[in-house]
């Protein structure tokens, strides 16, 4: 598993995003750099895991193996020697008892000396064997428990680092999710525009021909009247707009038929009313060569519209009258319409969820626009009445702004505004857009101020309507700004149009407080070929953690060291805490109540480490030093504070788990975990009288803490 994660981390590290366009938004930069951040996180987690596994070998397995080989193995050798010496002694004793008393005195004395010698060897072997058994039985109490405790220490340290890494990751995760949502919104907005562009580009070859080519060509059906009835004949038609010539070639040439290619000169073209014929998509033309009208049938409604447009045909207009050129400008009726819509939204719909994002019915929108822009009584519509819902009003406002002959922010300034939004300098963006706003014509700037002030008011209720400045930018970017030419490159700049509107909303107070000191915008940097390098959001650049020191400090340094509390409540020699932008939630009993807040994690008051003091105050127990996985010289003996939960101080009458006040176990309250205690077999020993080293004499606080908290069994 660890190997697979590390390979995955390497893949993420080497992965490169490719983007279309010459510039990336801030959100796209965050997304492009996210895989490298993920790779760093996975690498760090796996590094900690490998250290934990290494600690399992260094702190648990090897000490236990050494104990088995050195202590138990040595005891087995003592046992063999004891059994051998015992067998030798008892066999000699048997032979000695069978000696005859009639032997010489010198022989008996020599036999007695040999028996005494073997008895001495046997007693010495038995004492050494018993002593070794006693030593193993006593030393295993700490020599076996200490490695397990050390391994748990390293395991909880790994878990603690993982928790800290999670706390570091959460703010980054939230910011990246916001960038992903913004990018998704930009994608949705751009996709809609690209769909419209694709449709126009599919139709463009039929209406935009090279010089010398027909203006439009394709299949049409012609109504032919015969004596016995009416038939429809299929022709391939080519129309040249400048000469007004229509060439019609029949597709079904029958042998012997007189029909051939017809060259006609167009006089007029009129759409055929639907109720006057039982065929769809029909229109009538008049020519100089034929008397009367010729009825033609197109292949579809869109195809008929193209033919009539090429032939300058007369087509009734059923959609909104504001599409007429004289009503497409920013005139008084338009301002009145915008103000009424804004007033209606702010009065009865400013807290509506998804306001401006939710689309109204097209029929209702056209009905409202036709009524408001009626030439007979323009503006005579009460939007406060219950006849018009919020969706219809907001959709009508967006429809009006999008169908102006020129967008509110004008074609002339479009390129400069987009280039300003592409700048990686945030101050430059704001300054350039501020200056360009005051280059707008007076009516356009007035309309823009009216709209942006309204959008600011809507965004102030984002808790209710869920419409942030970024969401408003996605909606009104293509509405207030658009390129004059329809190209894919222009569509790819829609996300920067959204950023312009977002900046206007977020900095409305500064921009409309007055023109900048220098009304001319700073020189606009040229577009970049390569993506810019903008400092993305990151968590991998945070201060590095120092590795925890596993039980490697001496008692002389213990007075200067501080303990920190891990999530499981164990005291350990901690690495320097990470400096965070926010403090972790305080735990009961873990912090000093009177300590002022700092950027780093609060540390508890230094306390004496009983295991460390006890091991150092005893004589003759020094052991060879080893090296932990993190490169720190360590001692196999565990010298950490005992594991204790981070709880408030024990209540009077109930002693803590570490230092029992006496040898008798105390009753526990309901809810406390049961604690295994050994029943007393003898009175408690007097306090330890071991001489205090000179270094400790200089630390009265440690001496006092030792006298108060050291268990009586030390």
TrEMBL record:
Record GO terms (molecular function): GTPase activator activity
Domain PH per the UniProt entry, residue ranges: 213-316
GO biological process: actin cytoskeleton organization; negative regulation of proteasomal protein catabolic process; nervous system development; regulation of endocytosis; regulation of synaptic transmission, glutamatergic; signal transduction; synaptic vesicle endocytosis
CDD domains, A to Z: BAR-PH_GRAF_family (cd01249), RhoGAP_Graf (cd04374)
All copies of domain Rho-GAP, residue ranges: 328-512
Domain of life where this protein originates: Eukaryota
Biased composition (Pro residues): 680-694
InterPro entries: AH/BAR_dom_sf, BAR_dom, GRAF_fam, PH-like_dom_sf, PH_domain, PH_GRAF, Rho_GTPase_activation_prot, RhoGAP_dom
Composition bias, Basic and acidic residues: 657-675
Keyword Nucleotide-binding: no
GO CC list: actin cytoskeleton; cytoplasm; dendritic spine; terminal bouton
SMART domains found in the cross-reference section: PH, RhoGAP
Residue ranges, annotated region (Disordered): 516-543, 556-714
Keywords carried by this UniProt record: Cell projection, Cytoplasm, Endocytosis, GTPase activation, Neurogenesis, Synapse
One Pfam family in the UniProt entry: PH
The keyword Oxidoreductase appears for this protein: no
Subcellular location: Cell projection, Dendrite; Cell projection, Dendritic spine; Cytoplasm; Presynapse
Oligomeric form and interacting partners: Interacts with HOMER1. Interacts with AMPA receptor complexes. Interacts with SH3GL2 (endophilin-A1). Interacts (via C-terminus) with NR1D1.
Protein name in the entry: Oligophrenin-1
Record organism: Drymodes brunneopygia
């Amino acid at each position: 598993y660890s190997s697979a994660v590390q390979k995955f981390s390497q893949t993420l590290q080497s992965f490169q995003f490719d983007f279309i366009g010459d510039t990336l938004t801030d959100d796209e930069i965050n997304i492009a750099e996210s895989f490298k951040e993920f790779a760093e996180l996975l690498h760090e987690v796996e590094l900690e895991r490998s250290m934990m596994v290494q600690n399992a070998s260094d702190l648990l397995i090897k000490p236990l193996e050494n104990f088995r080989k050195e202590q138990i193995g040595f005891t087995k050798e003592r046992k063999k020697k004891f059994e051998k010496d015992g067998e030798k002694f008892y066999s000699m004793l048997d032979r000695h008892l069978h000696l005859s008393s009639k032997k010489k005195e010198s022989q008996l004395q020599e036999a007695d000396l040999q028996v005494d010698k073997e008895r001495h060897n046997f007693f010495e072997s038995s004492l050494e064997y018993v002593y070794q058994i006693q030593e193993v039985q006593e030393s295993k109490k700490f020599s076996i428990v200490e490695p397990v405790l050390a391994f748990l220490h390293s395991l909880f340290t790994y878990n603690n680092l993982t928790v800290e890494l999670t706390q570091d990751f959460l703010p980054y995760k939230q910011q990246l999710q916001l960038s992903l949502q913004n990018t998704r919104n930009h994608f949705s907005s751009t996709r809609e525009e690209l769909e419209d562009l694709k449709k126009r580009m599919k139709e463009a070859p039929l209406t935009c021909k090279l010089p010398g080519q027909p203006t439009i060509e394709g299949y049409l059906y012609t109504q032919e009247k015969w004596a016995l009835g009416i038939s429809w004949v299929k022709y391939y038609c080519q129309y040249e707009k400048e000469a007004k010539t229509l060439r019609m070639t029949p597709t079904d040439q029958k042998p012997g038929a007189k029909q051939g290619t017809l060259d006609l000169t167009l006089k007029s073209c009129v759409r055929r009313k639907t109720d006057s014929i039982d065929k769809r998509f029909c229109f009538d033309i008049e020519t100089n060569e034929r008397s009367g009208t010729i009825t033609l049938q197109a292949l579809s409604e869109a195809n008929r519209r193209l033919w009539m447009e090429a032939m300058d045909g007369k087509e009734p207009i059923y959609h909104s009258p504001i599409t007429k050129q004289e009503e497409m400008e920013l005139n008084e009726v338009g301002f009145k319409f915008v103000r009424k819509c804004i007033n209606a939204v702010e009065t009865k719909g400013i807290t509506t969820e998804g306001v401006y994002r939710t689309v109204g019915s097209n029929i209702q929108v056209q009905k409202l626009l036709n009524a408001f822009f009626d030439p007979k009584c323009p503006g005579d519509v009460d939007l406060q009445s219950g006849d018009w819902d919020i969706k219809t009003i907001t959709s009508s406002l967006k429809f009006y702004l999008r169908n102006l002959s020129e967008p509110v922010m004008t074609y002339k300034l479009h390129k400069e505004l987009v280039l300003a939004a592409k700048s990686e300098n945030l101050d430059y963006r704001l300054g350039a857009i501020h200056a360009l706003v005051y280059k707008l014509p007076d009516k356009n700037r007035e309309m823009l101020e009216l709209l942006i002030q309204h959008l600011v008011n809507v965004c102030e209720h984002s808790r209710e309507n869920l419409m942030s400045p970024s969401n408003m930018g996605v909606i009104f970017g293509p509405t207030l700004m658009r390129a004059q030419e329809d190209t894919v490159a222009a569509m790819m700049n829609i996300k920067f149009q959204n950023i312009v509107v977002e900046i206007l909303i977020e900095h409305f107070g500064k921009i409309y407080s007055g023109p900048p000191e220098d009304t001319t915008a700073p020189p606009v940097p040229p577009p970049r070929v390569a993506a810019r390098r903008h400092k993305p959001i990151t968590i991998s650049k945070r201060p590095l953690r120092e590795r925890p020191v596993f039980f490697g400090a001496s008692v002389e340094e213990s007075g200067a060291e501080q303990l920190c509390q891990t999530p499981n409540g164990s005291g350990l020699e901690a690495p320097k805490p990470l400096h965070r932008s926010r403090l972790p939630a305080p735990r009961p009993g873990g912090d000093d109540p009177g300590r002022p807040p700092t950027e780093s994690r609060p540390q508890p008051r230094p306390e004496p480490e009983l295991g460390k003091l006890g091991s150092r105050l005893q004589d003759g127990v020094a052991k060879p030093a080893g090296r932990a996985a993190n490169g720190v010289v360590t001692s196999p003996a565990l010298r950490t504070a005992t594991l204790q939960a981070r709880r408030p101080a024990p209540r009077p009458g109930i002693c803590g788990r570490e230092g029992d006040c006496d040898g008798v176990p105390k009753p526990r309250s309901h809810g406390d975990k049961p604690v295994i205690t050994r029943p007393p077999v003898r009175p408690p020993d007097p306090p330890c009288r071991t001489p205090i080293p000179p270094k400790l004499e200089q630390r009265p606080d440690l001496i006092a803490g030792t006298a108060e908290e050291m268990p009586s069994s030390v």
